[in-house]
Design goal:
The chain is an alpha+beta fold and about 280 residues long. It contains six helices and 18 strands. The two termini are about 30 Å apart.
């Protein structure tokens, strides 16, 4: 649906106006600038790439900075730009991973560093297909909502890779701005290509729990969490925001939302998986 066109490398030209929004790392370093340009948007990743999003949001043009590899451009597009563009097209897109359990999908929602990719990989190497590592797209289904599959890969830090990923797993080309490795779906990390009904949503805690903790969330609590973890290209576009909040409110009213916390130790993952499978029986 969305077309990406890559152009030759160039130095990032000055932008006449300051960004209307930015993303930063926890240490305050700038990660992404959001600009309005030519009726559409310019997404700038300093010293890495510019992505020009057309007014119809159906065409994206990527300009790598000098010496930035194609693998880095693809990584930025799939994991950062495309989820934002899909939000502009009216899709519900969240910072979440998802796996298949039974005939349904279970989502793990959290900011970076809370373990959602590790959980997805843990399930994927133990008999449960994964739908997405991040950038979960959710849409209304026959009953409730469906979780849609995204790019068939999982990104992991080195310790998660060592603990979970078989040495035969397919590794994607490295990208130079992160030490995370990306693994492509195969017989070791099995991917689900079909949408699945969203049956459980777990918002991950900080990992401070001494044992596994699980409690249901009210619709109001779930609404706050979904909004906090939404991909949104234009946070100032009032009609789109109103539509987004209406959709999220409908989703939050589904009785499927829980807070999940557990000790972040790899030896605990088997018990965490067992508890989730038992809890998520449909």
């Amino acid at each position: 649906m969305v077309e990406l066109h890559l152009r030759p490398a160039r130095l990032q030209p000055p932008v006449a106006h300051p960004p209307f929004h930015t993303w930063t790392f926890p240490d305050g370093a700038l990660w992404t600038e959001f600009h309005r340009a030519n009726g559409g948007y310019l997404l700038r990743f300093p010293d890495l790439a510019d992505f020009q999003v057309a007014a119809d949001a159906l065409h994206v043009t990527g300009f790598p900075a000098p010496e930035v590899a194609d693998a880095t451009m693809q990584h930025l597009y799939l994991n950062q730009v495309l989820p934002l563009v899909l939000s502009k097209l009216g899709k519900l897109v969240f910072h979440a991973s998802a796996v298949e359990i039974g005939e349904g999908a279970v989502a793990f929602v959290a900011e970076s560093g809370r373990g959602k990719s590790t959980l997805a990989a843990s399930f994927a190497v133990n008999g449960h297909r994964f739908l997405t590592d991040d950038g979960l797209v959710v849409e209304p289904g026959v009953r409730g909502f469906d979780a849609l599959p995204s790019h068939p890969s999982i990104r992991l830090w080195e310790d998660s890779e060592a603990a979970l990923v078989p040495p035969t797993a397919r590794r994607a080309p490295p990208v130079h701005y992160t030490s995370k490795a990306r693994f492509l779906a195969d017989d070791d990390l099995v991917f689900c290509e079909q949408p699945r009904p969203l049956r459980r949503v777990y918002f991950l805690g900080e990992g401070s729990a001494a044992t596994l903790e699980l409690r249901p969330l009210t619709p109001a609590e779930a609404m706050i969490e979904w909004v906090k973890h939404s991909f949104l290209l234009d946070i100032e576009e009032k009609p789109r925001l109103a539509s987004h909040f209406d959709q999220v409110a409908t989703l939050a009213n589904q009785p499927i939302h829980y807070r999940l916390d557990y000790p972040r130790r790899f030896e605990e993952l088997a018990r965490v998986r067992e508890a989730i499978v038992e809890h998520a029986r449909f």
